[in-house]
Structures are given as C-alpha cells and as structure tokens.
Design goal:
Length: 633
Amino acid sequence: MTASVPPLAPAARRRHLLTACALGTGFVYLVWRWGFTLGLGSLWLSVPLALAESYGLVMVSLLAFSTWRVTDRSAPAPLAGRSVAVLIPTLDEASDVLRPTVLGALALEHDGPVEVWVLDDGGRPWVERMCEELGARYLSRPAPRRGAKAGNLNHALRHVDAEFLVTLDADHVPRPELVGRTLGWFRDPEVAVVQAPQAFYNRGFQHPWSGEPLRNEQSIFFDAIARGKDRHNAAFWCGCPSVIRREALLDVGGVATDTLVEDAHTTMRLHAAGWRTVYHDEVLALGLAPEDIGAFIVQRGRWARGSMQMLRRDPPMLRRGLTWRQRLEYTASALHFLEGPQRLVGLVVPAIVLATGVVPVAADPLVYLAAFLPPFVLVPLASRALTFGRYRFIEGERFAIVRMEAYTRALSALVRGRGGRFRVTPKGAPSARRSVARALRLPLAVAVTTLGALAYQALAQTAGLPGRLPAAAYAVTALWALADVGLVGAVAVRSAQVRHRRRSHRFPVSVQAAYATQEGEPPVLAGRVEDLSQHGLAMVVGQASDPGDVVHAVLLLDDGPLTLSGTVVTAVPSRVRPGHWRLGVELHPMADAVRDALVSWCFRQPFGPAPEVVTVPAGAPVAPTALPSPGVA
C-alpha cells in the first residue's frame, strides 16, 4: 500500500520557484560571507555569527527536502474483526484530565474486540476504582519504575496480547472513529505504525491569537513536515494518537528506553528493521496543549534533550538499515533543537558590537544590505509557502525566543554527556510553575544588556568613548538591537497574558437553559450558557443575581436535558446584550453519570456553539410544563 503523491499543481510550481530563489540567494550570501567578510581581527565574533546564519539556511534546505512534495492519503476501508487494545499511560494526571480520555477510549467504534488499559505509574487507588467503575482494565507496574513512559508501555506489552495497540496520552480524548479510520492501513503487512496529527481543544500558550482553533506551534510539523516525511517512509510515532502493530514493537525489543524521545527513537529502529509507517492526516483525538510558558518549556526541553541523546547515542546518519532519505529526515528532526544556540548568537552579537565596537562583518554596510536583504525577505516567504501557510514570521520568532534557553541547555547536556529525567508536561489547573521572568531569564538578561550597550554606544558616538562604531555600522547594529529588544519585550508581554486560572478548560457553547434561584422551585427563568466545564459555567440572564446566590439550572442539550446546580461567583453586565447580566457560576459536586454526560457532550463540539434545540429568549419566563424532566436522558 503506497502513499499517493498528488501531481504538481501551478501553486506547487510557484512554491518550488520561490524556494529555489530563496535557497539560491541564501547560498550566494553565505559564500560571500565566508569568503569575503570574515575580518581576521574579529574571527571570535564573526565565525559564530556566520555559523548561525549557515545553520538557518541548512534548516530551510532540510525543510524544502521534507515538504517539496507531500502525501495525500485517503482513509482505506476499515479492518474489521481484529483485536485492539487502547493503552493510556498515566503518572500524576488529575481525574479531570484522565477520566475524559478513558471515557473517549471506551466509546471507540470498532467491529472487533477492544480493551482499554489504564497504565498507572502512580499506583493510585482512585484510578483503580475509576477503571472498575467505568469498565476499563487497570495495570500498575511494581517499583522500581524505570524507563518512565517507555518502561510503562513495555510492562504493558507483557500483559496485553491484542494484535494492534492504540496509544493515547492521558490528556488526549479520542474521537469514536479513530480505530475505524486508521486500522485499514494495516492490510499492508509491512506497516508498523499509523500516526495521526496532534490537535488541542484548549487555547494554550502555543496557540496564536487567531480564530483558527486547530492552528498552533506544532501545526508546521503536523500539517506539512509530517506529510513530507510520509513520502519518504520516515513519518514517526509521536506518542499519540497512534496505532501500532504489536508484532512490530516486539520485533525491535519494545519501546526504546535509552532516550527521552522514546517514540521517535523506537520508530527509527522500526524503519531500520524494514517496517513501514503511515501518516494519516486527520484529527482523530483532541488533547491539552501546555497552558502557560512554564509547561511549554518543560515539554520542549524534554524533546530537545531526548533528540540530543539520540544524536549522541544512536545517530541517524550512522544507523544501518535506514535509507538515505530516512537518515536525512531523522537528522533534520534532531537538528531542529540546535536552534537555541543559533538564536542566542543572534541576540548576543548586537550587544557585543555596540559595547566593544568590534564589527563581525568586514564589508561596506550598503554592500552588506544588498547581499543580506534578498535572502532575509525570500527565506521566510519560502518557509511559509513550504508549510502551506502554517509558518508565520513573527510567531516563529516569538516561539524561538521562548525555546532558546531550553534548547541551549539540551546542547550543553549533550556536550557534557548528561542525560536528563523524564518530566511530565504540567496539565490542567495551575500549579507551582515558573514565573514569566524566570522562564525568560536568559532572553530578558540579554535584552537588558543590549539596552545598556545601546546607551553606551550612543555616548560613544557623541563623546568619543572607546569602541566608537562608524556611523553606518552603528545605524545597522542599533536597528538590529532594537528589533531584538522589542521582540523579547513582546514575548514577555504575551507570555504574561497567557495564564491558566481555572481548574479545567471551559468549552465555548451556546445552550439554552432554564433556572431557578431557590431549591425546589420550578426553573421558570431562562438564560443562555456561553461556556461550560465540569466545574463551572457562564450564563447570560435577564435578571441580576448576587455573588453567593445558588442557581439550579436545566441545560437543554441536543441529546437531552442536564440538571446542574452551582453558586454565583461573579455577576457583571453583559457586554453584548444590553440590560442582561453575565453570571459566572461555580458548579457544585455532581454525580459521576452527570459529569460524564456533560464532558462527553462537550467533546462532541469542542470548538464552537452547540446546535440549539429549544429557542427561548433570554430573560423570558418558561412554563414548567414545557420543560423536560431534569436529569440525564
């Protein structure tokens, strides 16, 4: 079963022409830089800068290699009757995070046996009770629990005998069609892994300010790069949502445990052993993206350390059994994490130039700009074209600044021969996380130093202090420095604004509700619920309430009414409906059946308002006889 690569369309030809121009001008620029602009007196500064620029062009070239052509797959017919086991490794996730995933796994549709296994490395009694209640299998390995997530999965392999394994992170809720849409690829007996994209239902730190709910910092990889790797039979297991042939996993000795990127490392071994992989470009599960900058850095730092470990312990270019395309694809993925030192050089050089007067480019400023500007403009345009619009220059620069210290530390650990422990990405409610200032301490320190260097050079220009730059060099460097400082400042402001203050994600909804403010009274008042979670809701009403009031509401969902009660914690005038109030309600504890019904309904329409079933103007009285009986239908 081979991947379909669509024929070249005119848009693809334009994309290729733009990329060729970008790479060509970049290559000419680097030849000029290395051959004619490295002053002997400033090699200590000019060589690192030239290396950073060269790295950038190498990565764009590798991006072009991956995404020059991409696969376009259509889901094959379902493969019925095969045994499937869903594996959900968990360590310390809360019930609010884990339970929806288990519910989603239990609702998977498949014409064959499906077992759901919760692999609890935390050994928590409440998880075992939850599994017994819901009908899932519970497994907790004995101490010492080595190998983190990889060791947990390997332990499960000794207890699970299903032919195919669905792997889900504890925070990824699958859609019912996951098995049916992916299992057909395994008609090819050489296919070992089918990987689907990772998508997220919350608006975490890695999401831009836009109306595109699925686009995030990983969209470049899952929407473009992964499809290109698929063309080279180099798409790799990303942890979830994935389906794996158990026989293939056993063939390579189980999940790799000697790096922190156990999924990619295991897939490289599968490819070296002759197995094939498939990238299925369809959203089949929704997870929790890192909520704030601290969680984001923990996750990216783990990926960076794991990739550096793989480069050091099992370098893809030397791996026997891989094709040259696979070697290049795995190397490209690992080399991405060298971006940190490159960005650090780009931030530090202007400050050094302004403070010392040392010029790293021995060329006339006008000649430099003439050589620099074409690739500076064309390379980002080509990157956007190669990623089908997923790459945005400002967003890319912002995320690169945030990742800089974590990636630099990963390279430092590689040089020192250090590994690192597996750190689970923090999820859900706020915890003891790092502040924005601590998370951005390195770029902020460089920005402050740069401002000091700008002030010193301004004095040097007027007072003749040592290290005075020529006027043209001063102008170019000052613009560069101010751009860097502005970018770091924008990153800090944006990071401070992205904060998670609620216990769980609020789903945007549009649900008619009837409510009462006294227990036992019929719910004769009407409102509209605008957001909803298992812990709270926001409701627009026509009658004011005070904080502390208790409301008893019947939500008129499309699959039946749902009765909830809670305490008003905020009451403010509605911004969109004059004369109405927006109530923030903290929900009271509810029965498991009610909570499960609420969560399952929310995940059926996670990004937008639910269809309206009953139309009742907000604030109008509702006849008690017109309401369905309360509870869960």
